[in-house]
Amino acid sequence: MIEIQNVRKSFGQLEVLKGIDLNVEKGEVVTVIGGSGSGKSTLLTCINGLEPIVSGKILVDGTEVHAKSTDLNKLRQKIGIVFQQFNAFPHLTVMENVTLAPRKVLGMGKAEAEAIAEKHLNHVGLGDKLGTYPTRLSGGQQQRMAIARALAMSPDYMLFDEVTSALDPQLVGEVLETLKMLAEEGMTMILVTHEMSFARDVSDRVAFFHKGIMAEIGTPAELFENPQHPETQSFLASVR
Amino acid sequence: MFDTALSANDLVFLAKGAGITIVVTAISVVIGTILGIIFGVIRVQLGAVLSAPLTLFLDIFRSVPLLIQLVLANAFVGMVLQLQLSGFFVACMVLSLYTSAYCAEIVRGGIDAVPTVTRRAARSLGMSWGQDMRYIVMPLATRVALPSWIGLALGVMKDSALVYVVQVTELLKSTQILITRLQEPLFLLLICGAFYFIISFPLARFGGYLEKRWSND
């Protein structure tokens, strides 16, 4: 379970998260929507400790992420994250991209790591690209590889930060399909997305962020059909 | 039409000079590169403000002419430290630091060229700082830095001609000795130049080969 308690976060003078409270249960799929600069992406990078926070607490399975005593490298093994920008390791093949962390971080043997990598790469539809270098992949394939790379660490949670935003329109579908498949398999996920119909389809709950505040959260039906907050209403009107 | 007093023994003498050039260069480039990587990483990790003293120290080696550095270092070692070090040792010491100063900049540029998001991806998979450096940053930085580093190594090889001021008889000094004796400056400089080329060529080719191989990734 991920518990976010009154989290505040600033970049210099700019306060981007102004006291966020959110609990995500095991097996739950929560999507976060909102305009740019609403703080939604920042929240994800705080959850796995890539960004420090000013105050508040984030607990992952009871472990406080930003506590000094927390071994972040260990904690991050159970929180996979995929970013908006492509972030393949360009000097490694697809297979090596996926096996690197299991081998070096988990100390897995080559054969075992490769078997796991192959399973996940097949799962995301890249089973025929094992020896390919990432520069030869399309954006959609690179994002699916990044998903397989995160899954190879057998994470308990997956965070997705606008993973389709940098993609050509015709490549968005294949990545959303992959995410949907993970959601159906019961992976606990927090997704930041601009794909509204996708959010409606896969989410257990949808949160709307506005200027560093979680203005509203509810089931897709509640939030999309009957938004309460005026900012939610105007946001949804503008993206429809 | 063509007649020379150059004997086989003289060629051996030149080859020995070339050998000294290779050894001085190799030692300086190896030590200078190791130090350069350490200094470069320190500069990136500490940031501009905290690493300012180191930057100043390296800037001195980059901006004072090598000839002056060699003469002053030699005098410092002998007169101030009262140490009986060979010219060869002083030459390698100065050239190593000189190389490290340039190499640190190359390393810093290479590390800075690795996108932040790539490093975040590595860390988000649970890799430690060291693992990120070793498996992601250094391999990628090396690809960026290699052409500059090859240029540096070739430059150091040619700059090593200056170590004659601390009484090290390397290739150019050997050639000058022969010129004084044989009075055939152009012919001897041609041979000397050929020696330099033969020494540099493999390194330049090796760099080209690596660049080509990596660009296929």
From TrEMBL, chain A:
Keyword field: Amino-acid transport, ATP-binding, Cell membrane, Membrane, Nucleotide-binding, Transport
Pfam families from the UniProt entry: ABC_tran (PF00005)
Predominant localisation class: membrane
Record's bilayer topology term: Peripheral membrane protein
Limits of the ABC transporter domain: 2-236
Xref: InterPro entries: AAA+_ATPase (IPR003593), ABC_ATPase_HisP-typ (IPR030679), ABC_transporter-like_ATP-bd (IPR003439), ABC_transporter-like_CS (IPR017871), MetN_ABC_transporter-like (IPR050086), P-loop_NTPase (IPR027417)
Stored PROSITE patterns: ABC_TRANSPORTER_1, ABC_TRANSPORTER_2
GO molecular function, one term: ATP binding
Subcellular compartments: Cell membrane
Transmembrane parts of this sequence: none
GO cellular component: plasma membrane
Annotated family: Belongs to the ABC transporter superfamily.
Name listed for the protein in its UniProt record: Amino acid ABC transporter ATP-binding protein, PAAT family
Provenance organism: Celeribacter halophilus
Lineage start: Bacteria, Pseudomonadati, Pseudomonadota, Alphaproteobacteria, Rhodobacterales
TrEMBL record, chain B:
Alphabetical list of SUPFAM superfamilies matching this protein: MetI-like
Pfam families assigned: BPD_transp_1
Cited InterPro entries: AA_ABC_transptr_permease_3TM, ArtM/GltK/GlnP/TcyL/YhdX-like, MetI-like, MetI-like_sf
GO cellular component: ATP-binding cassette (ABC) transporter complex
Keywords linked to the UniProt accession: Amino-acid transport, Cell membrane, Membrane, Transmembrane, Transmembrane helix, Transport
GO molecular function terms listed in the Swiss-Prot or TrEMBL record: L-cystine transmembrane transporter activity
Annotated compartments: Cell inner membrane; Cell membrane
Membrane topology: Multi-pass membrane protein
Gene3D superfamilies listed in its UniProt record: MetI-like
Record field: transmembrane: 20-42, 54-77, 83-104, 186-204
Superkingdom per UniProt: Bacteria
Domain ABC transmembrane type-1 as annotated: residue spans: 18-199
Family in the record: Belongs to the binding-protein-dependent transport system permease family. HisMQ subfamily.
Protein name: Amino acid ABC transporter membrane protein 2, PAAT family
